[in-house]
């Protein structure tokens, strides 16, 4: 379990470094990762019932700072790139976080989402 979390953190950091140089959106991947890092235990399956309050607060904060279309598309691109790094079970659990936190977001943790359609 600890090795899974270490792997996920390393994958997040590596993806952030690659995405930060590749994306031109106003919100860079490091901002996204900072705000959703507390969601890793839930997404990886080490926390069973629901995302932590800290996780939900991070997602809420990310949602509130993604004010423009470019910001939201940037968040989408980051989440999409992260979804390709994780096993399908992690991506599936991560996709449930917004609803479990009582949020409706214009993007999801999905490797197939078309971020150009996010408004």
Task: State the main characteristics.
single chain, 119 residues, mainly alpha, 7 helices
Structure description:
This protein has 119 residues and is an all-alpha fold. Helices cover 64% and strands 0% of the residues. The protein is globular.
Q: Main sheet, how many strands, which sense, barrel?
A: none
* Low-confidence residue ranges: 17-25
Helix content: 55-70%
Classify the secondary structure makeup into a structural class: mainly alpha
Radius of gyration: 13 Å
Q: Beta fraction of the residues?
A: under 5%
| DSSP strand tally | 0
Count the DSSP helices: 7
Our measurement of the CA-to-CA distance between the termini, rounded to an integer number of angstroms, reads 37 Å
Q: What shape does the CA trace take?
A: globular
Sketch the topology as an H/E string, one letter per element: HHHHHHH
Mean of residue pLDDT values: 81
Topology readout:
Blueprint: H1 2-22, H2 29-36, H3 40-44, H4 53-65, H5 69-85, H6 88-95, H7 97-100
Helix pairs in contact: 1-5, 2-4
What's the short story on this structure?
By secondary structure, the protein is mainly alpha-helical. Helices cover 64% and strands 0% of the residues.
